[in-house]
Design a protein that fits this description.
Blueprint lengths: L1 H14 L6 H30 L14 H4 L17 H17 L1 H4 L6 H11 L7 H12 L6 H20 L2 H4 L5 H11 L7 E3 L6 H10 L6 H9 L2 E5 L2 H13 L6 E4 L16 E6 L9 H4 L9 H12 E12 L1 H4 L4 H13 E8 L12 E8 L5 E6 L18 H6 L9 E5 L26 H25 L1
Parallel strand pairs: 1-2, 1-4, 2-3, 4-5, 6-8
Antiparallel strand pairs: 5-7, 6-7, 8-9
Length: 484
């Protein structure tokens, strides 16, 4: 149901003059889907309140609710096309009444950690790009047909929305900056093993994949209302610089059931790490900072190790903002481990292994991030004690990866089954820090356990073997002739 609806909406957007790319398709589907979901959420709360003999105060005034402007209904439940806006009338209402009304919520909200504030943020940043009111009318009616009556429906919706974000990521660098394949995210979470009550942070939140999947991981641990409040309000935190990434992240979290996401629209790297105090720290950090970004000199002044490499600045931020004994799973370019030509890289590796126990390095295969050409590793570390030994694991899916053949959950099964015991195998090994050069701190991925390849034989050796085989065959033929 959801898949067909998304496809039909994409087809309409494709023929609309205002939507030009997969980025636009996801953005425009997002705001429509968000308002449809918000309406369903409000109706569920109203029904629950009625069963308890209470009244419910709707967030939106009557004329701005979905049932009033998007799909007014007749008593029999069918759409009242006499009351439903279409054409220019619909576009005028959406652009000049609905969006300004919703944007005002940001100014009127009590604080930033409310759903009202998030609604205001979304509609302050996002714009309607659908030119035709007739196209928008069709889209609204498709969205209205979606059903959110069960947990399975909501899971299906969030899964398909993730697939749209993936397509958005594949559409270009602007999208790719904030999408990480979900099997990789879930593998990292299953390795770090967050527990209910721990705080989780992603300072480069993008589409909020790490936070959404952490919510899904922790939700089964919830056993009462107070624990659900803790999970909803006091567990998941993130920051994002890019406008569209931030909006998509907020909506993604809400569509996953997190009603008032603790996301902040800011450049994380603007924060001076020397100002981070204990109250600012988190138990767990899960992140994939941007690849290849460059930061200005004034941003670099916020860090002890000066470098223009965005990911290296993020790693310093993550180490600083992690609590003592806190745990982290962070994706980074594999060259971080082995670059000895750049002083910042050497200094940062030294800082990491002296202040944290770098327990594991998961070496990711080429093609993990299709279209980027970037080879990555995942660093798993615990803050507070220096590193004595590092366990490496080389993930090998046994096939070439790409946009149409990405990583899947099965690819991580062996890693997840052995990551606690940390065995020595053809794919995994341990590196003692006693053997590491303390001038370069080179921690590059070099597998010592790969089987040695048999040396190539010379043409003369191959010829002698062929002659020997011919002699063997001749003797076999002679024996057969004797029997006959």
């Amino acid at each position: 149901m959801f898949e067909n609806t998304f496809k039909n909406i994409d087809d309409i957007l494709y023929r609309d003059a205002g939507a030009d790319s997969e980025l636009d398709y996801t953005e425009q589907t997002s705001w429509v889907l968000f308002l449809r979901y918000l309406d369903n959420l409000e109706n569920e709360k109203a029904d629950t309140a009625a069963l308890e003999g209470k009244s419910y105060s709707y967030l939106l005034e009557e004329q701005y609710r979905w049932s009033s402007w998007a799909v007014p209904k007749k008593p029999d439940g069918s759409i009242d096309h006499n009351q439903a806006r279409a054409g220019d009338d619909l576009i005028q209402f959406v652009n000049y009444e609905l969006f300004p009304y919703l944007a005002q919520f940001k100014l009127d909200a009590d604080n930033a950690r409310t759903i009202e504030y998030k609604i205001g943020e979304i509609f302050s940043e996002i714009k309607n790009k659908i030119d035709s009111g007739y196209n928008l009318r069709e889209i609204l009616e498709y969205a209205d047909a979606l059903v959110f009556n069960s947990l399975e429906h909501k899971d299906e919706l969030s899964t398909l929305y993730e697939s749209k974000i993936a397509n958005m990521g594949n559409a270009g660098r602007n999208g790719g900056q904030f999408y990480t394949t979900r099997p990789l995210i879930t593998a990292i979470i299953n390795t770090v093993k967050p527990a209910l009550g721990e705080t989780i942070y992603d300072g480069a939140v993008g589409s909020a994949g790490f936070l959404c999947e952490s919510y899904k991981y922790l939700k089964p641990q919830v056993s009462n209302t107070q624990e659900m409040t803790t999970l909803q309000d006091e567990t998941l935190f993130g920051k994002e610089k890019k406008n569209l990434a931030y909006i998509i992240g907020v909506m993604n979290m809400i569509l996953h059931g997190i009603e008032a996401p603790n996301l902040v629209h800011t450049n994380t790297l603007n924060e001076n790490i020397r100002d981070i105090q204990e109250k600012d720290r988190f138990d767990i950090i899960l992140a994939n900072p941007p690849f290849g970004g460059k930061e200005r000199p004034e941003i670099q002044q916020n860090f002890d190790i000066k470098t223009s490499e965005t990911a290296f600045l993020f790693l310093q931020h993550f180490i600083k903002i992690l609590k003592q004994n806190g745990r982290a799973g962070i994706v980074i370019k594999n060259t971080f481990l082995s670059n000895t030509a750049e002083n910042a890289s050497v200094s940062l590796r030294k800082h990491l292994i002296e202040t944290c126990n770098l327990e594991m390095v998961l070496d990711m295969p080429a093609g993990t991030f299709p279209g980027t050409g970037v080879k990555t590793v995942v660093l798993f570390f615990k803050k507070g004690t220096p590193t004595k030994s590092i366990w490496y694991y080389q993930l090998d899916p046994g096939r070439n990866l790409g946009k149409t053949n990405p990583l899947n959950s099965k690819d991580f099964e062996e890693f997840l089954s052995v990551q606690e015991s940390k065995p020595e195998t053809e794919r995994s090994w341990n590196l003692s820090m006693d053997t590491v050069n303390t001038e370069t701190y080179d921690l590059g991925v070099r597998n010592p356990n790969l089987p040695e390849e048999a040396p190539l034989r010379s043409p003369k050796e191959l010829l002698e073997e062929m002659k020997s085989l011919d002699k063997d065959n001749q003797s076999i033929f002679e024996e057969i002739e004797k029997i006959l």
